[in-house]
Amino acid sequence: MPVRPFAIEEIDHVVLRCRDQARSLGFYLGCLGLTEERRLEAIGLIQLRAGRSLVDLVPRPADESDGPANMEHFCLAIGAVDMTAVVAYLHAAGVEMLGDPFPRYGARGTGLSVYVRDPDGNVVELKADGEPGS
Hints:
The protein has helices spanning 21-31, 83-92, and strands at residues 10-18, 35-40, 45-50, 53-59, 71-79, 96-97, 102-106, 109-117, 123-128. It is of the alpha+beta class. The chain has one domain (10-128): 2,3-Dihydroxybiphenyl 1,2-Dioxygenase, domain 1 (Roll), CATH 3.10.180.10. Strand 8 (109-117) and strand 9 form a beta hairpin.
């Protein structure tokens, strides 16, 4: 196996699919004390601050069954890295990648990230550091 060019530092964010987004928002804000950080109305995304991390709430598609799966993906922060080396490593390790690196917003600001699938089919986002508040 090639040398891994990154280290996991923490969970950046978790994305939850909500049957009733308003109810979930009330729970996370009122009951747990998270704070709303930003919204992307075009995709129905509400981002909540949870310490150094984010919890993202997105609407659950109406045509999706009521099965237990409600996590869209989770994101692992990998620090300031060479994303080209990360992609090369993932390819060499035979990891299924879902698209190319793209700038995305997370708990540490906007930075390049890439989506991969774990052996059980879960989607994991690996996100490099970005500029805080960007």
